[in-house]
Amino acid sequence: MIKAVVTDIEGTTTALTFVHDVLFPYARKQIAAYVRGHAQEPAVSEQLAEVCRIVGKELSPDEVIEQLIAWIDADQKITPLKALQGMIWQTGYAQGDFTGHVYEDAVRNLQQWHERGIKLYVFSSGSVQAQKLLFGYSDAGDMLPLFSGYFDTNIGNKREAASYQAIAEQINQPADQILFLSDIVQELDAAAAAGMHTIWLVRDAEPDSTASHRQVASFDQIIVD
């Protein structure tokens, strides 16, 4: 019996185009001014120091900005970048510059699962802050009450089984009672290796007949029992 559902965001609950065509360009445009304007704030300075630690040397403010933009352009899943993007997106959401896209079928089924007492969690490469902003300012309104917890790359790499084992431990559920949803087969492989059930969302792609994971085109085809 499934007691908990852990869902990815990009390509699963949310269109990739929203992330890549709305959120990423917005952060790229704003990041230089944001870093210069907020560098002395503890939450920001901590992330800037982490950038220097990752590259292995001290960087000037301009060099940090150049590194962040390079990571954005390369679509890198780097924790300090994700944290800073989340801070920038918070301003955009609060100002009404955009709302978080969530597929209607995902909204409906997440609400139904929550009402049935199934615990819902998010595991995304985007920061926990970014996750909460997307669902808190979603097209469907505030969806935060549906979720019991959020995980990002601080728990581990999404393509490593240890990350999913750590999630199972943190939410205090046996792995074989957890369902993981994603559009990335390598993530599904890692979750399955940790003992979780898996479903592959193939919204805009042709099903893969060789895949070992069940494939669906929408949340409406997912049966949680």
Topology:
Blueprint: E1 4-7, H1 16-38, H2 42-55, H3 61-73, H4 79-94, H5 104-115, E2 119-123, H6 128-136, E3 149-151, H7 161-171, E4 178-182, H8 185-193, E5 197-201, E6 214-216
Parallel strand pairs: 1-2, 1-4, 2-3, 4-5, 5-6
Helix pairs in contact: 1-3, 1-4, 2-4, 4-6, 7-8
Q: Brief overview, please?
A:
The chain is an alpha/beta fold and 225 residues long.
Detailed description of the structure:
It is a single chain. The protein has 225 residues and is α/β, with parallel strands linked by helices. It has 2 domains: 4-15 and 99-221, 3-Layer(aba) Sandwich (Rossmann fold), CATH 3.40.50; 18-94, Transcription Termination Factor Rho, Rna-binding Domain, Chain A, Domain 1 (Orthogonal Bundle). The chain has helices at 16-38, 42-55, 61-73, 79-94, 104-115, 128-136, 161-171, 185-193; strands spanning 4-7, 119-123, 149-151, 178-182, 197-201, 214-216. A 6-stranded parallel sheet has the order 3-2-1-4-5-6, with helices on both faces.
